[in-house]
Amino acid sequence: MFLIIDGVEGGTMRHPLVVSLILLMFAAGGSQAITEARRVPPPSVAIAVAPAPGSVRARPDRHVRVTAAKGTLTSVRVSVGGVRVPGRFDRARRAWRSSWTLVPGASYVVSAAASPVRPGDRPAALVATFHTRPAPRAFGVQEAVPSPGETVGVGMPIILTFTTPVRHRAAVERALEVRASRTPHYSSPGLDDDVPGLRPDADGDVPGATAPAGRRVEGAWRWLGESQVVYRPRALWPARRRVTLTAHLAGVHAAPRTYGTADHTLRFSIGRRQTSVVNTRTHQMRVLRDGRLVQRMAISAGKGSTREYTTTSGVHLTMDKGDPVRMVSPGRHKGQPGYYDRMIDHAVRISNSGEYVHALGNVWAQGRINVSHGCVNARPDQAKWFFDHSLRGDPVTVTGTDRPLEWWNGWGFWQLPWPQWRQGSALHPPSPRAG
């Protein structure tokens, strides 16, 4: 018996027709009619993947893209090393794109399914693999501030120092994601200190919108050099929030032949909202906790006889503290006028130009006259209280002198108005009319 289909004789078919050759053929001891050939249409949906399936040297600074022609994507799953890759569909579900760039020197698996637009047409499915090229030179985070798990003040910046100079700053900035929790947290150690009865409302007491859970914080990065970038929110952080920075650096092309090889995650907490105001003319310092006055301190500030001995006015942040701290007069040697070398107790640093809030026994001057070399000194017991209750990143605003704090002096970043701060970002360059 021979089967002839479109002139092809024998048992070999070279035609894109699928034939129902046998319907109960020879069943029950007899032959039955062979049904006529029927065309089974191919899927009307075509799924495409980039990088191309089978690639062995795909560029890591690209995204995975999955598209469906004449249909809608019903599912997309991309994984690397068994870990799912995050991504998003477009509104029409005709395309899917990975959120971040790719890990160099890694294998990816893509599975996707799509349904046709017209009812009755066949759906489509695809499974593909590709491999990214390795990084000639690696790039990553060398140091991050604050420390992992640290509880900090509401003015705290995020400071990242990279392992190599960054040429493509915009690409790096786009990979830096900052998120904060919506609701306050009261159970973390160090958030509330020992002031009873202080609880902000659900939205905190900081001007500006609170960042919803899982959403980005409104803020901007500013580059301080080739390998360091600083993040500052538009307004002070809401109190008692948890913050997560994710640097999605894997695959980021930071400089010629230089790629990020891994992501970096930093988690820390924002503590209670403590702010201080130092008035060098009235010689008083007021400390507020969540909007309530919790400490009033008589102080003595810089005597102002020289620029060096003038306390800087502006928004400072507490940077670190020591008990004691050795303070030596800059640029002077022993025996010269103005020379000093002393160990100072309960010292909280507020700038890089040698300014501290610290303890000193010159109670006769505190509250009356400014006699220091530029620091703010207070009665030893009150200075100890301030030392014990300070977190890195607490704002300390000094008023009353003619020497302004430079925005680059220590963590004086809040000295810059928001539009000026954003001009230091590679993603928010100054407009042609600016400046």
TrEMBL record:
Domain L,D-TPase catalytic residue range list: 274-399
Gene Ontology molecular function terms on file: acyltransferase activity; peptidoglycan L,D-transpeptidase activity
Classification via SUPFAM superfamilies: L,D-transpeptidase catalytic domain-like
Alphabetic keyword roster: Acyltransferase, Cell shape, Cell wall biogenesis/degradation, Lipoprotein, Peptidoglycan synthesis, Transferase
GO cellular component, one term: extracellular region
Active-site residues from the entry: H358 (proton donor/acceptor), C375 (nucleophile)
UniProt-recorded name of the protein: Lipoprotein-anchoring transpeptidase ErfK/SrfK
Organism: Sphaerisporangium krabiense
